[in-house]
Amino acid sequence: GLSVNPCVPKGFGDFSITRKFREGTYFIEVKNPNNVEKGIQSMVVDGVSVEGCIIPYVKGKEEIHVVITMG
């Protein structure tokens, strides 16, 4: 899978990134409601809550939508 661990300056706010990995394109939205510098409070991959910081790899999947909430 794809490991994610956002680390941003204090007050950076929300952001999004698109990342190609293997045959898939990952559309990652990072929410930072408490303006923290690092840490993942929750992660949702294609509508399913996932524990930890690894986006599971699914062979053949071309688009993966991820929402990370820092905290």
Provide a concise account of the structure shown.
The chain has 71 residues and is mostly beta strands.
Q: Could you outline the blueprint of secondary structure elements for this entry?
A:
Layout: E1 2-3, E2 15-21, E3 24-31, E4 40-45, E5 48-50, E6 54-55, E7 63-70
H and E order: EEEEEEE
Which regions contain 5 or more consecutive residues with pLDDT less than 50? none
Basic shape = elongated
**Biggest pleated-sheet summary:** 5 strands, mixed
Helix content, binned percent: under 10%
Strand content: over 45%
Number of helices, where a helix is a run of at least 4 consecutive DSSP H or I residues:
0
Q: Termini separation (Å)?
A: 22 Å
Overall pLDDT metric: 95
Estimated structural class:
mainly beta
User: What is Rg?
Assistant: 12 Å
* Spatial order of the strands forming the largest sheet: 2-3-7-4-5
Number of strands: 7
